[in-house]
Specification:
Strand content: 35-45%
Number of helices: 2
Oligomer: single chain
Number of domains: 1
Shape: elongated
Largest sheet: 6 strands, antiparallel
Helix content: 25-40%
Radius of gyration: 31 Å
Length: 199
């Protein structure tokens, strides 16, 4: 009987301590590699999301300048922009290049002939002040970047260049270069250059 018990015990196999340690080391390495991969994925996702938002916001800025900033209440809302300008004037300049553009919209009333929208770069943001029906906006609008994004987005270039040879401004070229912070000393950049003409 004793011989039978000993043979049963001899046939049983188990894991040695070295085998367990090897399995644990491999498992830890796999977890570390997976963690690094997931971290890289989320960092890349965050960078691409910030860069996409930068592109969208910069394009929205250019579209507002071209098609007009919305002014006026509800159903009486109008737009003041390059496409519906009666006159355009470069500001903050002594040449044909400037950092500001003042647009006078059409008006069927003489009392509103002083209405305007003025797009300009100030304190790291493209802003717009306007007068609509003789009333000036209480504070400038933040066109690009939004006020809450000022810490992350830097505008490197914002300028208007007169394109047409005539004395009055009919066609302007707008250049907008900006970058967004995507990490410690890491930035993603966009550059736009487009021409806009009043109709």
């Amino acid at each position: 009987m004793k011989k039978h018990k000993a043979s049963i015990l001899a046939q049983q196999s188990g894991f040695t301590l070295i085998e367990l340690i090897v399995v644990m080391v491999i498992s830890v390495l796999l977890l570390l590699i997976s963690g690094l991969g997931i971290g890289t994925f989320f960092r890349t996702y965050k960078e691409l999301t910030a860069w996409t938002k930068l592109q969208q916001d910069a394009l929205n800025c250019l579209n507002l300048i071209k098609n007009g900033v919305p002014v006026g209440p509800g159903s009486q809302m109008e737009y003041i922009g390059v496409t519906n300008a009666v006159t355009m004037e470069l500001t903050n300049t002594t040449t044909n290049v400037s950092t500001g553009l003042k647009i006078t919209p059409p008006s069927s009333y003489d009392i509103y002939k002083n209405d305007y929208a003025h797009f300009y770069l100030y304190d790291g943001a493209v802003r717009c002040t306007y007068i609509y029906h003789g009333v000036q906006a209480a504070s400038p609008l933040y066109i690009f970047p939004a006020k809450e994004d000022l810490d992350d987005i830097i505008i490197d270039k914002f300028k208007f260049t007169k394109v047409n040879p005539e004395q009055n401004v009919y066609v302007v070229q707008v250049e907008l270069d900006a970058r967004v912070k995507t990490g410690a000393d890491r930035y993603r950049m966009v550059k736009f250059k487009t021409k806009m003409a009043k109709k």
